[in-house]
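input
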Amino acid sequence: MPVEHSVKKSSRDPVPLYLIPWDPDSQEHVDRMKLQRIACGWKVDQVDSWKDPQRKGQAGLHWVVLHPDHPETSSRLERHFAAYPDEVEALLDTCKTILGRPHEPDPLIPFFSPVGHIALDSVTALPELETSLSNGVLSLMNFYISTALQNLGLGGAAMRSCEKMAKEEFGAKTITLETIANSDVHPDSPRRIALKRPIPTVTNQDWYTRHGYTVYFRKEVAWTDIDEAGNEWPTASSLLRKELV
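output
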């Protein structure tokens, strides 16, 4: 479906992204989320379980959408669609509420083509994240940028948009998150070797640290991975936080 925009925002916007809420009651939104989780390689089986928390305002899952006026948007969308042709069809902004607040779609952007997603949740299952909107703490969850568009600064832009939204729209003072610990991805890690995982150029933990997050807790067994021989590998995670000042 072709999309035309007449957004009157500058293409020089330092954050050339929109965050548009995921609609748990739209089958098109649900199907697209499953496609992106398949591309991400994790949690595709959990998408249906995200519907109810999103409706209740406990989860704040948003699509990452390129700014229509940015000079590189067209070429970036072409790259994304070439890698993921099943995502060519644009979605309609139909979500009614987000984190317990009404959502009004931008009439200038009724249709959009997401290149990733990011969640800002007010309730999580991990006590150590200290997630509590009443205490001003939201948690970053389920972050994905199209693999065809990584290393272009879009992840950092999405983070900044999320932080700005958390502070200005929901009054959050802190964002917390969980990611795999550096110890389990370094070159000599027995876990990494057994699971045949590549050596990351930049670890998740270091990437978040570069964006102002600091480690405050380590969980020795956050989840368990299984290698080709059926051996279990407990995986450690690092919990990080950033004060929104």
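quick obs: DSSP finds six helices and eleven strands in the chain.
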